[in-house]
Write a structure and sequence with these properties.
The protein is an alpha+beta fold and 428 residues long. It contains eight helices and eleven strands.
């Protein structure tokens, strides 16, 4: 269920073994790192791209000496790399001072055993491992690594130890909390799916299409759904920062998708919190300037934040490639894009159908005007107007029937699709 990356027997002894002079009889017991993905009983899923351990004088990814076991063409390769002092760029160490003794990639599990001298002749790119450092540990399921580079870990930020450890000081062992991070990231994704594609989309649908047939009840439903969306969204938003607590809540800014998700997410939450505040200052529905509030609250902030949130949900699902297999991510995206297509095409069709049956009598306000102004008197007039047109009543009934049918179809299509996404995020 959850990936758990554990580093076993992280220890070094004062040895002079270099990449070019590796011991022929295998690694000394006190000079070996053993990296493996360990799966608790009953759990499935683990990193399939690479796993790595690193040491840095700072509590961040900068200026770190990084040793990675990466899957390249179904084979595990060992890479001696380092992160640049002024950024997060990972660079291939030209001297390659590691000794690989055995490795495997079986059933999606990476395992490798290697050693490195405490001190090397490559002081510019290798750390002196007799000194204490903060320890990095992490991995990703993303593919794309080569024999000289590891693919960016994207949203799967490595864990950083809270205290410094000395790699050469006996059994200086540590375990990554990647499992906890995965739990939090998955919970973040699930809650955001509930907040936006389910609750917010339903609330906006009710406000945009159900006013004429529910002139009194639409607002209560809209308000309840949007407040629930805000609650779920805030909790999910906080969980993302808790998951990234080792980096101060920040993400890796070298990955375009991760940066986009981070920036759009903050924008969405700011607007989502601001919109209910704006609604507290609305004027009476019959005020002549009410249209200003309606455009600001609904057409501007409301629809803008909904479009941004739905797009960002898709970006977020794509980032689960750092935690799930590519086929699982493809399934998630297929379900979500199907939902988005139904939502968009369905509402375009509904708008065209309603336009076709809208009463054209001059005494009757247009549906478009009623939706924009939200005037209670106009809505009442729309639902009770009597005209000389003998087909007026039939058109009004047809309009209402289409709205209720559209709501039922929307819920029938949306709920199973989003439930499938939520279940997949929880169990894969």
């Amino acid at each position: 269920m959850w990936s758990l990356l554990t580093f076993v027997s992280l220890s070094l002894a004062a040895t002079s073994a270099h990449g070019a002079n590796c011991p022929l009889n295998g690694p000394p017991s006190n000079a070996t790192w053993r990296l493996t993905t360990s799966l608790p009983t009953g759990c499935t899923g683990n990193y399939k791209g690479w796993i790595a351990v690193g040491y840095t004088p700072k509590q961040g990814m900068q200026d770190a000496d990084v040793f990675a076991c990466a899957v390249v063409n179904s084979r595990v390769v060992l890479l001696d790399t380092y992160n640049t002092p002024n950024g997060y760029s990972n660079v291939y160490d030209t001297s390659q001072d590691l000794c690989l003794f055995n490795s495997s990639f079986i059933n999606g599990r990476i395992s490798c055993v290697f050693s490195r001298a405490i001190r090397t002749n490559d002081a510019s790119q290798d750390k002196d491992l007799s000194v204490s450092y903060y320890q990095l540990s992490g991995g990703t399921s993303a593919s794309g690594s080569t024999s000289t580079s590891i693919v960016n870990h994207g949203g799967s930020t490595p864990q950083i130890s809270s205290v410094k450890v000395n790699p050469s000081n006996g059994n200086a062992s540590a375990s990554s909390s990647a499992g906890t991070t995965d739990h939090l990231i998955r919970a973040h994704g699930i809650l955001m799916v509930v907040a936006w594609p389910v609750l917010a989309a339903s609330g906006i649908f009710f406000a945009g299409w159900m006013k004429p047939v529910q002139p009194k009840g639409w607002f209560q439903v809209h308000r309840a759904l949007m407040l629930a969306s805000l609650l779920f969204g805030c909790v999910a938003f906080l969980l993302a920062f808790v998951a990234k607590r080792d980096t101060g809540g920040l993400v890796y800014f070298g990955n375009t998708s991760t940066v986009a998700h981070f920036v759009i997410g903050i924008t969405v939450m700011a607007l989502h919190i601001a919109n209910p505040i704006v609604s507290m200052f609305r004027c009476h529905p019959n005020e002549k300037h009410r249209w200003i509030f309606n455009i600001l609250h609904g057409s501007s902030i409301g629809l803008c934040v909904e479009f941004l949130a739905l797009a960002n949900t898709g970006i977020g699902l794509s980032l689960f490639g750092n935690y799930l297999s590519q086929s699982s991510v493809s399934t998630l995206l297929a379900l979500y894009l199907t939902y988005a297509a139904i939502l968009l095409v369905g509402q375009l069709f509904l708008a065209s159908a309603i336009k076709a049956v809208t009463i054209s009598s001059p005494a009757t306000p247009s549906m478009q005007k009623a939706l924009i102004t939200s005037s209670q008197s106009e809505l009442k007039e729309y639902t009770t107007i009597e005209t000389d047109d003998p087909t007026a009543s039939k058109k009004t009934n047809a309009d209402g029937n289409m709205r209720w049918t559209a709501l039922i179809l929307f819920l029938t299509a949306m709920l199973p699709l989003m439930l499938a996404v939520i279940v997949l995020l929880a169990v894969l």
